Amino acid sequence: MAGGGGYVEMLKTRHAARLLTGTLVGRLPNATAALAIVLFVRAEGGSLGLASALSAVYGVANAVGQPLLGRAVDLYGQPRVMLPSATLAALGMTLFAVLGLDPLPAAYAAMIVSGFFTPPLEGGLRALWPSVLKDEGRIHAAYSLDAIAQEVMYVVGPLIITGLVGLWSPAAALGVISLLGVLGALAVVTTPPSRQWRSEPREAHWLGALRSPGLLVLLGAFFCIGCALGSIALAAVAYGGEHGGDAVAGYLLSALGVGALIGGSVYGARQWAGSPEQRLRVLVAGLALGYLPLLLVPGALWMTVLAGVAGVFLAPSLACAFVVVDRHALRGTVTEAFSWLVTSFGVGASIGTALAGPAVEQGGVPAGFGVAVGGGAAALLVLVLGRRVLTAPATRSEVVARSENDRNAAVEPGFSSGHQA
């Protein structure tokens, strides 16, 4: 696979473009929630502290709900879980928009409902790719394009919110985004692959996907990467305060996204030698090294360039992690496993933001970016220390499960994401 042909070939596969587009649209409420909640609360006369608290409640509820809903998808299928949960999430956000901040307990309850019932569309899409694409080259391209699309969504999403606020109001923005979330989920679950997909039979156990040692190593590593990204977001705002205002902070974060787009495009345009576990360590090492120059905090122009460089290895690391998760997810737990990755990443970002604030106050802007450097180094350390776990021979039951799912006998076997029923 060379150039962009792999992406084109993948998107030409029946249902692929619709699944990817529907998933991205369905994830807009989650991608834009933090900004939308803050704008709405401020418009209602609430403080920034209240806006942060409501946003945090939404985020915590989302972190709890994703793996639980992912487990439900593995047990009961995608349509029976994702469409009802998307509807409940939209109703929660709409209730918040209608009631506002009075009574305040109702606002918090609405945030809990909306966050908890956000459907696990990310994990669901990655579980579908092997059964839809079947060819390993196309699956590789799909995971890479998925990682790239995430970056696009987190750049475009805030623009959509601010545009809706400008045209109508913050309340209307919440309503429109919630409706789009339901329509995106509907577009996914009405496709034949989503209706027909069934997870492999699973062993009943309360830990579910967390029984996989390899998955635990990945979750630890991507928690640390989430910490790094969360700290960069806050450190960029602090840097902007000293070098030209919020616009400069926006330039840095946009450059980070552009770097990720470039890196993901290059990574997905070809096949790579070696196991994905080994390749992930190399990519995360590049990610950690890319954060180091941020400590120099030069002028705005060079800092923007450095931010772009820092983002180059992000999308490739995510794309490679998707493959590794699929290889290490226990039989019948793949959607839950992907949802745990989303949760660990998101929780890590929240922790990173919380750590960067005191760091900037105590040591200035370089200390804020130092949290990102520490997060990248910690992620690499987790992968190095967990190397034996990630490369350990599978148990007998896992071998059986993987051999059943290895349709291509390819270099990277073990896509365990289920089958067409």
Task: Describe this structure as you would to a colleague.
There is one protein chain. This protein is mostly helical. Helices cover 78% and strands 1% of the residues. Strands 1-2 form a two-stranded antiparallel sheet. The relative contact order is 0.15.
What are its keywords?
421 residues; mainly alpha; Growth Hormone, Chain: A; two-stranded antiparallel sheet; 1% strand; disordered C terminus; membrane; MFS_trans_sf; MFS transporter; transmembrane helix
Would you spell out the secondary-structure blueprint of this structure?
Blueprint: H1 5-12, H2 16-26, H3 28-43, H4 48-76, H5 79-99, H6 104-116, H7 121-133, H8 136-167, H9 170-189, H10 192-196, E1 197-198, H11 213-242, H12 246-268, H13 276-291, H14 300-311, H15 314-328, H16 334-363, H17 365-385, H18 387-391, H19 396-405, E2 419-420
Antiparallel strand pairs: 1-2
Number of helices: 19
Going by CATH, the homologous superfamily of the largest domain would be MFS general substrate transporter like domains
Helix fraction bin? over 70%
Provide the low-confidence segments as ranges. 393-421
| Helix and strand pattern | HHHHHHHHHHEHHHHHHHHHE
Specify the biggest β-sheet.
Answer: 2 strands, antiparallel
Q: Give the terminus-to-terminus CA distance.
A: 30 Å
The CATH topology assignment of the largest domain is Growth Hormone, Chain: A
Classification by helices and strands: mainly alpha
Q: Radius of gyration from the CA trace? A: 21 Å
Number of strands: 2
Average pLDDT number: 82
Query: How does CATH name the architecture of the largest domain?
Result: Up-down Bundle
The dominant shape is: globular
Number of domains: 2
- CATH class of the largest domain equals Mainly Alpha
Identify the strand order in the major beta sheet.
Answer: 1-2
Share of residues in strands: under 5%
Transmembrane segments: 19-41, 47-69, 81-101, 167-189, 215-241, 247-268, 280-296, 302-325, 337-360, 366-386
Keywords: Membrane, Transmembrane, Transmembrane helix
Pfam family, one: MFS_1
Protein name: MFS transporter
